Amino acid sequence: MIAHMSSDGARTLGRTVLHWLVDWARIVHFGAVIAVLALSPSSYARDNRPAIARQVVQGTVPEVWWFTLLTSLIGLVLIRIVVVTALSYGLTRYALEMVVRVLVLELIPLSAALFVAVRCTLPDGEELVAMRRSGALDALTQEGVDPMRREVLPRVLAGVFSVVALAAVSCVVSLLLAYWVVYGFSPWGFAGYTRTVGHVFDPMLTLIFALKTLLFSLAVSVIPMASALIDPPPSRSRTSAEIRGLIRMFALLLLIETASLVGNYY
Amino acid sequence: MMTVKDAPAPVAPVRNLELKATALLVLLVLLVVGSALYLMYARGAFEPTQRLVLVADDSEGVVVGMDLTFSGFPIGRVRRIELGEDGKARILVDVPRRDAHWLRQSSVFTLVRGLVGGTNIRAFSGIMTDPPLPDGAIRAVLRGDSTEEIPRLVAATRELVVNLTALTSEQSALRASLANVQATTEKLQGPQGAMGVLFGDDKLVRQLSAALARTNALLARVDTMAVKTDTQVFGTGGVLPESRETILQLRALLGDARGSLQKVDAILVDAQAVAGNARVATTDLGALRADVEASLRKVESLVNEVNRKWPFARDTEIKLP
After folding, report:
1. Which of the residues A104, B59, B79, B215 has an alpha carbon 20 to 30 A from that of A155?
2. Are A249 and A220 in contact, with CB atoms under 8 Å apart?
3. Region B1-6: what's the mean pLDDT?
4. How many helices (H) and strands (E) does chain A have?
């Protein structure tokens, strides 16, 4: 009986691992299809352009103000804490470097990705699930329109664009805030500040930073859409497609962040 | 089958959608390109530089991108670190040409590692009138490591403590000297004061005191004598006024003597004249004498002639030899 149970457990575990592997393979396949579509000029044909433009504008413009405001406030507090602490320990020359490293390199890309995921791509994934469930995607196919190009690709592109835009704007705003907190409105700190920033952003670190931001944007854009499209209908699973997409996305973000930390500091 | 209920809500149209999207795209591209250009500027990509090679025994703590500072200002960046043929570390530094004038041929470069923080490469230019450092110059870098100094410092401190202990021990010369100083101070404060310190023996001090007292008495007497001498010598009727009178009298006497001498002088002149005359007379006497002698010789010869011719002699005898 025990042998029967253990063989049942092994079989269940094997089935779970197999499912997991198959799911990830389908996600990777989906990502590859999306990459091919994104890189092929025919995806930006006149018919698809309005859909892409609408997703990009609606996914970026409202978010960028909120996100910049929030990161400015939190960044201001963090910069102030770091600068005051460094001042009290007599390590002011390292304060700016630490601010740039912690805030710009580590916190802002991750928070931008999470913000876009929560506000934009996860709802988009839910929308796709609804469309899939309602048969709207099938209807589009029947009308001779490729739903991948018309509905999925614009959402993925909007997610990628939004993450990159939010990260870029917030990084620039945070750098300006750091200058303001340390030097005030005096222009005479510019040379030293520029030198410190140049010192932090060496080529390897800059490459890792750019790659990390890009991978974050891809992770938060592709995985919710993939989960919406490849997962079985909700009735057949205990967890919904959104939750599974969320878990997969967090796992991938964690992996990317860890890899970037290893690349930067080891 | 799609029903009206399941269909997604119709999307509200956005005005100038494509224009807005294009503007967003352009803005993002501008932002990213601008940031990239700023970073390149911050890393000195647009500055003409000259190369400086610093040779160090140990490049520990030196990282690519760290600054070379002059008077606290960064004037160069480490571009590369390599191991030279001779086993020494070669630190290749790019110095912007606009800052290169701070480096002279006599400049000194140091590599300092602090207890906290990173390593610093510093340049010192003592003589700013020296020729500027040429491109590609190779200079040795002096290493000043505060952590390397600690063992030496500890050893020196230990030696110092040992010396101090030896100095302050019970048998030390310093303690003996201090005891002597204390004894001397006590003597100084005693009734005999510094004299007691100088001569030590009480008997000698007493003798010296007596000698001093006698010297004082002697000095008093000398003083009295001086007063008396003053009175006798310089007072009215003293030696000095009388001497002055005597001198005056002597001067008068001398005047008289001078007159007498002048008279004597005249007499002497006369005497000289008399002597002259006497000399002439003496000359004449010589001639006279010669004449007298000649006459006498003639008389003698005449007598002899008479004697020969007229023998008046009683005993004429001829003596034969």
Report:
1. A104
2. yes
3. 41
4. 11, 0
